[in-house]
Amino acid sequence: MAYYYAIDGDDIGTRIEQLVLTDQLQVASAYSQKVESSLNKIKEHIERGGGYCIFCAGDSLFAVSDRLIELSKENLMFEDITFSGGVGKSSEESK
Hints:
Helix content is 40%, strand content 31%.
C-alpha cells in the first residue's frame, strides 16, 4: 500500500506578495529563501522515512511512500513559517 503526502505553505504567497507590493524586496528574497530551506527540511524528513518526492517547488511538496511517515507539528513549523499537510491512501485523499 502507498501513502501520499501533500504539503502546502500557510499564507506564504500572501506574505511574499505583501512584501513585494510594499517594495520590501530584500525582505521578500530572504523570506523566500527561508521558505525554500524549510520545505527542503520537510523533503529530507520524508526521504529519511523512505519516501520519494514527486515535486518540491514554491511552497508545496508532494511525495509518496510505501509506509506511513509521521508529520508532526515539529516537522511542519519553522519559526514564522508553517505548512499544512495531508496524508492519504491516494493522491486525491492527501489533499
